[in-house]
Amino acid sequence: MQTLPSAKPQRKWYKVDLHLHTPASRDYEEPGVSYLQWMQTVVERGLDIVAITDHNTVAGISAIRRELDWLTQLEA
Fold it and tell me: What are the pLDDT digits (tens) for 45-58?
């Protein structure tokens, strides 16, 4: 009996930005943008993975987590 070669696993490409600032960064260039708007822009750009690189603060990460918690509660 002949054995068929196993199929290679499918590879997936991800769209990534490894240097993004949030409104928490002192040098963020879009004043008045909310964290929700920031996240909407990430989604609109089709990004799968982002790295938050705010300067001297982690406040943006906390704010985004709060927004995600709020959005999750709305879905329930």
Answer: 999 999 999 999 99
